[in-house]
C-alpha cells in the first residue's frame, strides 16, 4: 500500500506548468452511464485522451450539497453508491483512486471567502466516479471532491471558483459535474431511449445557456432565475446547475470554449457539457 508520505511527496512536486489545464463541466445524467458503454461515456473516455494527463482531479459534484464548504482530505476515498433502484452491477462498482490530503489542505488555503473543512467522511459520489472511471480507468490519479454550500447563492459559488484558479497552473483537472437542464419530475420515462429527445422549453433554454457561455456573458447565467419560465423549469433546484458556475468562474481571458455530449435525454434533461481551455 502506498504511504501517506509518498502522496505528500507527490503533491509537493506539483510545480506550475507552462500549459494551463483545461476545465470541464460534465453533464453526468443517469448513474448507469458509469457502467454502460454509451455515447456519453465514450466521449468522456475520448476527452481524457485529448487533454493533458492531470496530476490530480478535483470534482464539484451536484451530489455533495452541504452546510459550509468541505473538501475530501482522506488518503483513500470510498466509492459512494448514492442512489436507489439500479442493477446490482452498479452497486458493485468500486473506483479505488487515491485521495491527496496535502492537496486538499493547499486547496482549502487558496479559498479566503470561507473556512473550508477538511472532510474525512465523504468520498467519491456518483457525480464523480461515474465520469472519472471512464476517463482514468486505472484509478491511479488522485481524486478529490469540493462540496457545494447550499446556504449560498449562485454569485457566491461563481466567485469562490475564481479562488482556486491557480490549481489549473499545477496540472489539476477541475470538473463541475451536474446537468444544465435537470427536471426529474418532468422526465418522459418512455422516451429515454430516443436520440436527443427534449421538450421545446428544455432545448430552448439549453440553447440560451450555450449562447451565453459562448459569448462569455456569465452574469445572466449567474442570475438564471431572471431568464424566465424555461430557466425555472430547467433548474427547479440548484444543485445540478451550480457546478456549471464553478466551471465558468475558472475561465481565463484567453480560454476557448467548446461543447460536447450536447443532447437532451427524456425530454427534461440535457447532457450538454463544456470544455474551457
Automatic annotation (TrEMBL):
Keyword terms, alphabetized: Dioxygenase, Metal-binding, Oxidoreductase, Zinc
Lineage top rank: taxon: Bacteria
Cofactor(s) of this protein: Zn(2+)
Domain Extradiol ring-cleavage dioxygenase class III enzyme subunit B: 37-253
InterPro entries in the record: Extradiol_dOase_DODA (IPR014436), Xdiol_dOase_suB (IPR004183)
Pfam families: LigB (PF02900)
GO molecular function: ferrous iron binding; oxidoreductase activity, acting on single donors with incorporation of molecular oxygen, incorporation of two atoms of oxygen; zinc ion binding
Family: Belongs to the DODA-type extradiol aromatic ring-opening dioxygenase family.
NCBIfam families named among the record's database cross-references: PRK10628.1 (NF007914)
Protein name per the record: 4,5-DOPA dioxygenase extradiol
Amino acid at each position: 500500500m502506498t504511504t501517506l508520505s509518498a502522496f505528500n511527496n507527490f503533491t509537493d512536486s506539483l510545480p506550475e506548468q507552462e500549459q494551463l489545464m483545461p476545465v470541464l463541466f460534465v453533464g453526468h445524467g443517469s448513474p448507469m452511464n458509469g457502467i454502460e458503454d454509451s455515447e456519453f461515456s465514450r466521449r468522456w473516455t475520448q476527452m481524457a485522451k485529448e487533454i493533458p494527463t492531470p496530476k490530480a482531479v478535483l470534482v464539484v459534484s451536484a451530489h455533495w450539497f452541504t452546510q459550509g464548504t468541505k473538501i475530501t482530505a482522506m488518503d483513500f476515498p470510498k466509492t459512494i453508491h448514492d442512489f436507489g433502484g439500479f442493477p446490482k452491477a452498479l452497486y458493485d462498482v468500486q473506483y479505488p483512486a487515491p485521495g491527496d490530503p496535502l492537496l486538499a489542505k493547499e486547496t482549502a488555503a487558496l479559498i479566503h471567502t470561507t473556512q473550508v473543512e477538511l472532510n474525512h467522511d465523504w468520498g467519491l459520489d456518483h457525480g464523480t466516479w461515474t465520469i472519472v472511471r471512464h476517463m482514468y480507468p486505472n484509478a491511479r490519479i488522485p481524486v478529490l471532491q469540493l462540496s457545494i454550500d447550499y446556504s449560498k447563492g449562485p454569485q457566491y459559488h461563481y466567485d469562490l471558483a475564481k479562488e482556486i484558479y491557480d490549481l489549473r497552473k499545477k496540472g489539476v483537472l477541475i470538473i463541475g459535474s451536474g446537468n444544465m437542464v435537470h427536471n426529474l419530475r418532468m422526465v418522459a420515462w418512455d422516451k429515454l431511449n430516443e436520440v436527443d429527445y427534449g421538450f421545446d422549453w428544455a432545448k430552448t433554454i439549453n440553447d440560451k445557456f450555450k449562447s451565453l457561455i459562448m459569448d462569455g456573458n456569465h452574469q445572466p447565467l449567474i442570475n438564471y432565475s431572471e431568464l424566465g419560465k424555461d430557466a425555472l423549469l430547467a433548474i427547479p433546484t440548484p444543485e445540478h446547475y451550480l457546478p456549471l458556475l464553478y466551471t465558468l468562474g475558472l475561465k481565463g481571458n484567453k480560454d476557448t470554449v467548446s461543447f460536447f455530449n450536447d443532447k437532451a435525454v427524456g425530454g427534461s434533461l440535457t447532457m450538454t457539457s463544456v470544455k474551457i481551455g
